[in-house]
Amino acid sequence: MPAWNRALFLLVNAPPGAPAADIHIARWLAASPLLVAPLLLVALWVWGNRRARGGLLATTAATLLGLGMNQVLGALYPEPRPFMIGLGRTLLHHAQDNSFPSDHATLVWTVAVGLIATRAAPGWGTAMGLYGAGVAWARVFLGVHFPLDMIGSAGVAIVGAGLAQLALRWPVPWLLGPVEAIYERSLSLLRLPRSLVPRASPPADTP
Questions:
Q1: For labeling, which of 73, 153, 167, 182 is most exposed (least CB within 10 Å)?
Q2: Tell me, what's the pLDDT at 191?
Q3: What angle do CA 131, 135, 25 make, to 5 degrees?
Q4: Distance from chain centroid for Cα 101
Q5: Which residues make Cβ contacts (< 8 Å) with residue 21, sequence separation at least 6?
Q6: pLDDT tens track for 9-46
């Protein structure tokens, strides 16, 4: 493990006597991507510009592929978490598994770059990118990741932007129609309001 990675971890990791408010905020940021990222994609699909749905599908596909890439990278570069080698302070319970890259940061940043690269919702993509920086800080601050893990996640996200753009050409053009049909059929079966099937309208892509 590079010496700078350990040194930067110790610089960011919560010191003894860290303010309780900082710890609470960090814990929320560290855990929230699993809820925030999917909810944003669903909300943009339901209430956003219908013409952006191809980009949302492409972003979702790229994100899933990015998380799959994490598993491959983790197998090629296995890295213990800081608390597994007795380094720093740990303020968040976590399984003793591979640390590189961070799945949480990859999730947020791949959604962010996907929304920007596909032009599906660049405003929200920028907001997610900033939120992802907070997530990255929080997971190092709480002692469950190294800074290098976040650099790996950023690299995967950049690859994800290219994957999202490729997905817009194939297979999204063939998948969009059937996916929309399934969605609208589900609304009918569940007797949900037709307002959940928006008309094509000006983009609503800013936070």
A1: 182
A2: 79
A3: 95
A4: 12
A5: none
A6: 999 999 999 999 999 999 999 999 999 999 999 999 99
